[in-house]
């Protein structure tokens, strides 16, 4: 599998065009400030490992309301027990809505732990098998369908988080579309990473319209198109306002700010991104 950087360069997707041009004029009559801002805790992964409770308190003080966890070397919840992290977040006025996990040998325990927290979604964070072929993506679709049934029995919704490689083609088919077409839209949802979709030359809005109701979760990020990595809001190539203006087309329930690389301290970026959203009119 190609690296993100190699894939994007070789595919010629650096000419992003008008999709990337920032424009706030369409939202001039809207209400200022984005509400119920979420964050993917991978954004502050090191801080969560060092001091999970203290980091959650900092996020709450900034204003973040919705949370998505990610697997770590200390487990699914950064060394905290499922009920423990649920109580801590609720006491801070936040909600643990989702978690990034793997569909692997520990899947049964993963589902049980998620049910114990009371979270709504479990999101597979990467393909459970290798191979950029239609046949492999059909096999993955079967895996996802079974995983979704397990989640449904536990009262949880299952989904998948994309990267950039899913937008490669095999036999003339976009592999991401194979996943969408080969899975039940009622049971297998998608968490769209808007940044990677756009950097591959695709428009998320086209997917919202073609596959209505499939994208209840988003990763909202800005991207540096030269370095091919995430950056602070307003410093990259992604039209954040346009994306949020199309939330209804996506039937988006929650979005999570995600930033994987930083210009300085991660918490400074986290604060910048929240403040940026509060200055928008949508």
Task: Give a quick summary of the entry.
With 282 residues, this protein is an alpha/beta fold.
Structural account:
- This protein has 282 residues and is an alpha/beta fold.
- The protein has a single domain, classed as TIM Barrel, CATH 3.20.20.
- It has helices spanning 4-11, 45-50, 52-62, 82-91, 107-117, 134-153, 175-181, 194-199, 204-210, 240-245, 247-250, 266-278, and strands spanning 38-40, 66-70, 95-101, 121-124, 157-161, 169-170, 173-174, 188-193, 217-220, 222-224, 229-231, 254-257.
- The strands form 3 sheets. It has an 8-stranded parallel barrel with strand order 1-2-3-4-5-8-9-12, surrounded by 4 helices.
- Helix 6 (134-153) crosses helix 7 (175-181).
- The protein is globular.
- The termini are far apart.
- Mean pLDDT is 91; it is low at 13-30.
- Residues 105-279 form the Xylose isomerase-like TIM barrel domain.
- This is Sugar phosphate isomerase/epimerase.
- Keywords: Isomerase, Signal.
- Residues 1-28 form the signal peptide.
- It comes from Pontibacter ummariensis.
Write the layout of secondary structure elements.
Blueprint: H1 4-11, E1 38-40, H2 45-50, H3 52-62, E2 66-70, H4 82-91, E3 95-101, H5 107-117, E4 121-124, H6 134-153, E5 157-161, E6 169-170, E7 173-174, H7 175-181, E8 188-193, H8 194-199, H9 204-210, E9 217-220, E10 222-224, E11 229-231, H10 240-245, H11 247-250, E12 254-257, H12 266-278
Parallel strand pairs: 1-2, 1-12, 2-3, 3-4, 4-5, 5-8, 8-9, 9-12
Antiparallel strand pairs: 6-7, 10-11
Helix pairs in contact: 4-5, 6-7
InterPro entries: IolE/XylAMocC-like, TAT_signal, Xyl_isomerase-like_sf, Xyl_isomerase-like_TIM-brl
GO molecular function: isomerase activity
Pfam families: AP_endonuc_2
């Amino acid at each position: 599998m190609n690296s993100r950087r190699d894939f994007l360069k070789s595919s010629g997707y650096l000419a992003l065009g008008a999709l990337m041009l920032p424009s706030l004029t369409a939202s001039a009559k809207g209400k200022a400030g984005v509400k119920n801002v979420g964050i993917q805790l991978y954004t502050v992964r090191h801080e969560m490992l060092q001091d999970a409770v203290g980091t959650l308190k900092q996020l709450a003080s900034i204003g973040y309301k919705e949370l998505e966890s990610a697997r770590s070397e200390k487990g699914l919840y950064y060394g905290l027990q499922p009920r423990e992290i649920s109580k801590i977040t609720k006491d801070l006025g936040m909600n643990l809505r989702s978690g990034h996990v793997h569909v692997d040998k520990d899947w049964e325990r993963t589902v049980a732990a998620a049910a114990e927290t009371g979270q709504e979604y479990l999101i597979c964070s990467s393909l459970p098998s290798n191979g950029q072929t239609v046949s492999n993506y059909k096999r993955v679709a079967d895996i996802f369908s079974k995983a979704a049934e397990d989640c449904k029995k536990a009262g949880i919704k299952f989904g998948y988080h994309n990267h950039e490689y899913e937008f490669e083609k095999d036999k003339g088919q976009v592999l991401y579309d194979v996943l969408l077409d080969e899975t039940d839209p009622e049971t297998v949802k998608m968490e769209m990473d808007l940044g990677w979709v756009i950097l591959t030359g695709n428009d998320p809005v086209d997917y919202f319209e073609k596959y209505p109701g499939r994208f209840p979760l988003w990763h909202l990020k800005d991207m540096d198109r030269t370095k091919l990595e995430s950056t602070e809001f307003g410093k990259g190539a992604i039209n954040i306002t346009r994306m949020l203006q199309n939330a209804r087309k996506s039937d988006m329930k929650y979005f999570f700010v995600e930033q994987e690389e930083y210009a300085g301290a991660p918490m400074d970026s986290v604060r910048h991104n929240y403040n940026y959203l509060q200055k928008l009119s949508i």
